[in-house]
């Protein structure tokens, strides 16, 4: 199964001996300030989830208004996006592909077709594949067979159905992102 390019070894800065560009050899890697580290973490999360700056800001506002830890709430909101749930369940190779499936109304949440990838799902929601395309059904079935879904999702691979058992906790989310730096960045 192909993964997101942003998670590959080739993408990582640690593989380079110097920064990219014509003057990389003279500049070397720089040390980042507190703001620079926060900005990098925010940008890393944006790339991993394939979302815009305005969406990130809106999710921070939602997370800070909820009871409990703002950083954990922030990650729960990002993970509960419909396109992300479809990606985590293994019904798509990447976030952009999952986003396209949702935008083309291939899935229904609780029996209603949905065309908004940023829709947030709640525990108890059921997501069904509703497209009439047999080819697309075969593609999604083959992707789902190869993938192990997280514990907070119940995936029925024969019916192509996802049930959200609960929202994930931080220990269930395997991301190379420090969400506390993102919260600090937005709380300036």
What's this, in brief?
With 188 residues, this protein is an alpha+beta fold.
Strand and helix map with partners:
Layout: H1 24-27, H2 34-49, H3 53-65, H4 70-79, H5 82-89, H6 95-103, E1 107-109, E2 112-113, E3 126-129, H7 134-146, E4 153-156, E5 161-164, H8 179-186
Antiparallel strand pairs: 1-2, 1-3, 3-5, 4-5
Could you describe the 3D structure shown?
It is built from 8 helices and 5 strands, in the order H-H-H-H-H-H-E-E-E-H-E-E-H. It is α+β, with helices and mostly antiparallel strands and 188 residues long. It has a domain at 81-168: Structural Genomics Hypothetical 15.5 Kd Protein In mrcA-pckA Intergenic Region, Chain A, CATH 3.10.290.10. It has a 5-stranded antiparallel sheet with strand order 2-1-3-5-4, with helices on one face. Helix 2 (34-49) packs across helix 8 (179-186) and helix 3 (53-65) packs across helix 4.
């Amino acid at each position: 199964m192909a993964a997101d390019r942003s998670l590959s070894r080739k993408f990582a800065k640690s593989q380079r001996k110097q920064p990219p560009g014509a003057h990389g050899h003279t500049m070397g890697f720089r040390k980042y300030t507190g703001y620079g580290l926060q900005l990098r973490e925010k940008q890393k999360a944006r790339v991993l989830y394939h979302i815009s700056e305005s969406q990130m800001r809106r999710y921070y506002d939602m997370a800070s208004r909820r009871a409990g830890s703002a950083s954990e709430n922030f990650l729960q909101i990002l993970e509960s996006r419909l396109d992300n749930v479809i990606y985590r369940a293994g019904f798509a190779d990447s976030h952009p592909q999952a986003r396209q499936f949702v935008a083309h109304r291939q899935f229904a949440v609780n029996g209603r077709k949905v065309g908004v990838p940023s829709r947030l799902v709640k525990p108890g929601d059921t997501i069904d594949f509703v497209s009439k395309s047999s080819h697309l059904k075969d593609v999604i079935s083959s992707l789902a067979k190869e993938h192990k879904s997280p514990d907070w999702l119940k995936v029925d691979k024969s019916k192509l159905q996802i049930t959200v058992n609960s929202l994930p906790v931080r220990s269930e989310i395997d991301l190379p992102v420090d969400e506390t730096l993102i919260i600090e960045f937005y709380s300036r």
